[in-house]
Amino acid sequence: MVQDEAITPENHVLSHWLLCVGRDRDRQAFAKLFQYYAPRLKTYMRKLGSDGAVADDLVQEAMLTVWRKAEVFDPAKASAGTWIFTIARNLRIDRFRREGRPEVDPADPLLVVDDRAGADDALATRQSGERLRQALHTLPGDQAKVVELSFYEECPHVEIADRLGIPLGTVKSRLRLAMSRLRAALGDDVR
To answer: Which is deepest, 52, 120, 135, 153, by most CB within 10 Å?
Structure first.
């Protein structure tokens, strides 16, 4: 896990304190745990790249979680240190994920999509679509069929091969030839 700890008398004492916190809500035992683990957790957080203030916040949050969840600690499954450091690590990961996804204001004018397409855009789209249809009609039938299945019906290449009763390599070759011909026919319109 996070911290490998040898079985020592100190580990037994730490586990005992944690069990006292879980069983009896023993504040003195918690204070001893806090005094022992807080500096170690802060060093651990700093080594993982958290700045001082964030490390302090994570230590406070981790120790609060230890207080709240001490009753689920099982010394047969992990040492007190492993259990506490795992809590701290998970809290750091959660914070990192939260901070990595900024909240979005749906009313932000920069995010509002203008549903009204300009007349020029609509005309350009229609013209491009018409040019593409004309270019598709110039393709040999076998290539046109493969393009239709792949792009219009969104069939996977394996399914196209099955439906047409041809090898997968043939499907890929026909698509490659068709795309080459379409690029040549459309010229500058291909992006």
So the answer is: 135
